[in-house]
Structures are given as structure tokens and as C-alpha cells.
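[retry 2/3] 7-carboxy-7-deazaguanine synthase: previous attempt timed out, resubmitting with same input.
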Amino acid sequence: MTRLRITEIFYSLQGESNTVGLPTVFVRLTGCPLRCGYCDTTYAFKGGEWMSLAQILASIIEYTPRYVTVTGGEPMAQKACAKLLTALCDAGYQVSLETSGAVDLSVVDPRVVKVMDLKTPGSGEMEKNLYNNVDTLAATDQVKFVICDEADYLWSRQQVEALGLDGRCEVLFSPALGQQDATELAEWIIRDRLQVRFQIQLHKYLWGDVAGK
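[retry 2/3] 7-carboxy-7-deazaguanine synthase: success.
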């Protein structure tokens, strides 16, 4: 029987990505091989509860959602995550995966929208980026850069150009809360005429750093 270790399953508004603001069920898997300096879900590193695919699906269906996001931690650190993603797609949900991109994404069901981080120097985990994952990205996927400072911004701008990301999929630039001023980042994007989507973490502005939101 396929089981996964789950930190929480909850219903909230999507705070990021191109479905921001839409009611979504979040399935947060336990565990992460990275330790980003700005991480806001350290409580998902350990613990959690083992659940079967049937139990997870039963918990989700109570909310009658349209959108389901699988997140972490790093959800792909659990090998059974790929089976969960496929099961969610088979159940008719619009499924997205929030991933650091530090684990192979070639096994992800093509129906899933991948929202993949490329870790910036300011994250402290830049060396964990698996650039082969860029080749798995479809036009419906998204690459996210969490910007900690101007050096991160310049690095991210260079990565977008060097990897041709803005011609491959949607690109998201997000300020690290408490580190990078949001207005300043917006001004840089406008100044440089970057073809990226500026975003803030909506859920943090609504509820702060609260688990289950």
C-alpha cells in the first residue's frame, strides 16, 4: 500500500503562482533536504502522519475543491509523491506541485502544473539546483525566484536570460518577506522591462506565518 508522511491538509486561498487568490486544498508533505535561510515551513521538516492515498483523497474531497496544491517541505523528497500527483489528476482536480527543483521532476505526471523554485544565492542553497529539471518544464509550468537582495535580483535576471525561461514558461519574481522590499523589486522589474510576473505571498499579508493558512 502506498503511503506518504503528511504534515497537514488544509483549505485556504492560494497565496502564490498564477492561481493566486483562488480557493485551494493544500497537501503538505513532511521532509525537506534543503535548509533555505528564509524558510517559513520548518515545522514540516519532521513529524507528520502516515496516510494512504485513499485517506488523503478522502480528506481532500470533503472540501469539494477545484484546485489542489501539493507542497512541503520538499514534496518530491518522498518517492510516492509522484503516485499521489497522478491519483489527484485522475480524480479530476487541477493539480499543482510546489517544488524546490532540487529533486528529479521527470517522473511528474504531465497534467500537473509544476511551480519550481530556482534557489538564489541568498537562499543559501543555490548549489542544490538541478538544472536538468528546466528541460521538463512545459508552457503551463512556472519558475519562481525568491529574491533576498539586489544581488539575487541580478542573478535571477541573468538566469532567466541564459536559460531562456521567459520563452519556455511563466517566470515569477517574489520578494523574500523581511529581506527584500517589495516596491523596490517591482521598480527593478519595471526599469529592466523584464517579462516576469511580480508576486507577493498573499497568505502572509492576510494571516502572517500561521500553519494551515
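[retry 2/3] 7-carboxy-7-deazaguanine synthase: The domain at 3-207 is CATH 3.20.20.70 (TIM Barrel).
[retry 2/3] clearing retry counter.
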